[in-house]
Design a protein that fits this description.
Elements lengths: L1 H6 L2 H8 L3 E6 L1 E2 L15 E2 L1 H13 L3 E3 L1 H9 L9 E8 L2 H13 L4 E5 L1 H5 L5 H11 L2 E6 L2 E6 L3 H15 L4 H15 L3 H8 L3 H8 L4 E5 L12 H19 L5 E3 L10 H9 L4 E7 L13 E5 L7 H9 L1 H6 L9
Helix pairs in contact: 2-14, 3-5, 7-8, 7-9
Length: about 350
């Protein structure tokens, strides 16, 4: 990224691969963990300072900042935006810092945001296992849990052991159903006397805070399934239920239509043509993946397989964002295809 920016080569890609706009993906906006802290989820976080600088940069570049509903309208009717370049700020899951830190920054820049909420996380019936695992591993030098019917104890004293344990927990948890995931997480925290309910509410907003966000004219709410499950790993019936229930629950609790969706994971292994079709059948106007890319006019025919540019803890440099927006990184990542829909 630095090389492309330093040489200016990314500008050569822009006319062909820069597209009409881009959907930017975020998770957390909050202060960075101190150096040396065990933080395998660090890549999900950008600092408030960088987020503020990014929005100022987009405004300076005269890029429109719009909601997903506006993205939909501009893709369907290119004349809607008078040909202006745009960016859409999207946030996944429903974290407290989206409301407490990101939204006030968006207000300063009059920048709308689209939040994809996981209804089960908001309810407190499911837990973000990736954050729970990280928090437990920070405080303990070993973990004991049941895997394949056997009690397993793994070391977690050094950072290397903690990272290995985190990866092992992740691999195991992603093979489980949503219900089994929740049961596993609850058994894990019980073994180490971890107050998961207090931790969960410090991380994930509840219905009251989500409703406050939804009432803000700058905020649009989308769905992100009910249990944050990988849809590709589910049966058709279960995947349909995740799509329909998340949409219905959010609409009922917030009193507004839910027209947009984000696939958990969102990569090729988590969502494909079957899931794109199911999202369309569920009535969503758009659905976003985590495939890396800008938006092109051709995406009007692939509204349920839209790419995003992940702006996270690994990319907290404006020059990297410039390369992303030019389409140079997407051209290289996608073997010079402008649209990836498989």
């Amino acid at each position: 990224m630095a090389g492309l920016h330093a040489t200016g080569l990314h500008h050569l890609f822009a006319p062909i691969y820069g597209g009409v706009g881009a959907i930017l993906m975020f998770h957390h906006v909050r202060p960075a963990e101190p150096k040396g802290t065990f933080a395998p989820n660090r890549f999900l976080t950008v600092t408030p300072e960088f987020f503020d600088a990014l929005l100022a940069h987009l405004r300076k570049c005269d890029i429109d900042i719009i909601t997903m509903s506006d993205v939909y309208r501009r893709l369907i009717d290119p004349q809607t935006g008078n040909g202006r370049q745009f960016a859409c700020l999207t946030f996944d899951d429903g974290y407290v810092d989206n409301a407490d830190i990101a939204l006030p920054i968006c207000r300063r820049h009059n920048a709308p945001m689209t939040l994809y909420a996981t209804s089960g996380l908001i309810n407190g019936s499911n837990f973000p296992w990736w954050l729970v695992s990280e928090a437990i591993l920070r405080e303990h030098t070993q973990l004991t849990f049941v895997e394949a019917g056997q009690s397993v104890t793994i070391p977690a004293a050094s950072h290397a052991e903690k990272h290995a344990a985190f990866r092992r927990l992740g691999r195991h948890l992603q093979t489980l159903t949503a219900e089994a995931q929740t049961a596993f997480v609850l058994s894990l925290v019980e073994n180490v006397h971890f107050d998961i309910k207090t931790f969960h509410r410090a991380q994930v907003m509840g219905w009251d805070k989500l409703a406050q966000m939804a009432a803000d004219p700058l905020v649009e709410i989308g769905a992100h399934t009910d249990t944050h499950c990988v849809l590709k790993a589910q049966t058709v019936a279960r995947a349909k239920r995740e799509l329909a229930e998340s949409r219905a629950i959010l609409a009922e609790r917030l009193g507004r239509p839910i027209d947009h969706f984000a696939y958990p994971g969102g990569g090729r292994d988590q969502a494909g043509p079957r899931e794109f079709g199911l999202a369309s059948q569920a009535g969503f106007l758009t659905a976003v993946t985590t495939r890396h890319g800008a938006l092109h006019p051709e995406h009007r025919r692939h509204l349920h397989a839209l790419p995003r540019l992940s702006i996270n803890g690994l990319h907290q440099q404006l020059q990297t964002v410039d390369v992303f927006l030019s389409g140079a990184s997407a051209a290289l990542a996608n073997r010079f295809k402008r649209v990836v829909s498989d």
